[in-house]
Amino acid sequence: MNDVSNHDASQAAALPDVSRLSVKNLLRLEASVVRELRRRDLVRTNNKPLGDIAEHVVWLARGGVLEPNSTKSHDITTASGHRIQVKAMANRAAGSAARFSPFRSADYDTAVFLVFDAEFDIVEAFEVKSDLIEENVRFIPHVAGRQPSLTQVRTFGTDITAEMQAAYAGIDAA
């Protein structure tokens, strides 16, 4: 083995056993890795598994079926047939002007919005009826959808923070 291979092997042996980390600590570790890759100019985005985690949290809270990724308009269908679209963001410097990812379909009943802080705790969660999004969030042609701001979500939504925090607290047991 050459020196580079020996170095890589010794570094791999020093890696932590991530199978023992909580979901929150896995997200923190992932964020630190992305920050370092950005510092090295190796990646250009902060794409994260946060959206998938958010969907799982809402599914834990509401039950039903977590739809396949290919489902266009919603992420969860409850036992009563209620269709939920899930959106998430990490708390950003833009504050309440920060925008969630766009809605490109209105074929859902409600949307649940989760806001995570820098430590990946859920600090805000709101549920908004689809017709309120359709009526109050303008269509943006270049994103081909409606992209609500955190301010709009706070204005039109029902605060469900405690419910989502409780579900998130149980994610490692699920």
From TrEMBL:
InterPro entries membership: DUF6998 (IPR054267)
Species annotation: Microbacterium mitrae
Protein name as annotated: DUF6998 domain-containing protein
DUF6998 domain mapped to chain residues: 50-137
Pfam families: DUF6998 (PF22522)
Domain of life: Bacteria
